[in-house]
Structures are given as C-alpha cells and as structure tokens.
Amino acid sequence: MTYKEIDRNDVIAGLSEFFDIKELVCGHTYKKFGVNSWQFLDAYALAWLLLMRTEILNAPMFINGGSYSQRGLRCNMCDIVKGKTATYLGGHVLGKAFDVTVKGMTAEEARKKIKAFANDHPEKCPSPLRLEGGVSWLHFDVIPQWNVTQLVYEFKA
C-alpha cells in the first residue's frame, strides 16, 4: 500500500477553515500545549480528515466540543486511557484516529461514501485507512494493518 507525499502545513491550513485545534485534541493536551497541539497529530490522519470534510463527505463534522470529548487525541490523563489496566496503544493515543459525527448522515452512510470514494479515486487517498464498522459514530484511523492490502479496511473492535 502506498503513502502519498503530503505537505503537513498545507493540510493544517486547510483544516483550520473547518476545525479549531481544541476540537481535535483532548482538553488536557490543549490546556498544556495550545495551538502547538497540532504537533501530536499524524499528518495522514489530518489529510484524511481534510479530504473527508472537503471532498468525500463535504459536510460539517464534529469531533470534540459540546457533549463530546476524547474523540481525537487522547493523553494519559483522559478517563478512557487512564482507566486501562492493560497495554493500550490505540490510534487515539498515537494521534492517528478520530471519532466523528457527520451532520446530516449516519456513520454507515459516511463509511459507504468513504469506501466508494477510495474505490473510484485511489489516487486522491493519502494513505491506507481503517474504519470501525458496527458503531454509531465514524471512527477512522491510519494505523497500518498487518497483512491487509485494501486501501480502506473495515474492522470490528
């Protein structure tokens, strides 16, 4: 599977039209690092987020804010993480995953659109992508999946 060359600064500039960094990271991270929190987010995850927002889903997307938290980067102080009793190396703690609510569509509709786009326009996809199936939110991450050759891979947690 190939990874496209991307300009991280261009991606962040594009995302800044739609998201404030505090929507993409936990409150602990934002409180300590502020706008510098961008440094902890994977460039390919950000590139996918921008592509989904501008071309694939082309709809407002909500990560953190309001009643939502811990849906982007999670640090060791976040309740979801600090409560773990076993090793936890999920995409959220690595800055490679987002849980998203898309305005006007279900998570399943969003997953179908993403898969169709990847099938029709693989050249526009920045990297392989994992989608969590069977959940009511859109989870995506860019964790490399061992022995998977699909551009977009759906998994069940």
Write the layout of secondary structure elements.
Layout: H1 8-15, H2 27-33, H3 43-56, E1 61-62, H4 79-82, E2 97-102, H5 107-120, E3 129-132, E4 138-141, E5 152-155
Parallel strand pairs: 3-5
Antiparallel strand pairs: 1-2, 2-4, 3-4
Helix pairs in contact: 1-3
Rg over CA atoms: 15 Å
Rounded mean pLDDT score: 96
| Order of H and E elements | HHHEHEHEEE
Broad structural category = alpha+beta
- What is the name of the CATH architecture? 2-Layer Sandwich
Bulk shape: globular
The largest sheet, given as strand count, sense and whether it forms a barrel, is: 5 strands, mixed
Please write the CATH class name.
Answer: Alpha Beta
Order of strands, main sheet, comes to 1-2-4-3-5
Condensed summary:
The chain is of the alpha+beta class.
Verbal overview:
This protein is an alpha+beta fold and 157 residues long. It has one domain (8-155): Muramoyl-pentapeptide Carboxypeptidase, domain 2 (2-Layer Sandwich). Helices cover 30% and strands 13% of the residues. It is built from 5 helices and 5 strands. Strands 1-2-4-3-5 form a 5-stranded mixed β-sheet, with helices on one face. Helix 1 crosses helix 3. The relative contact order is 0.17.
Keywords, separated by commas or semicolons:
5 helices; 157 residues; alpha+beta; single chain
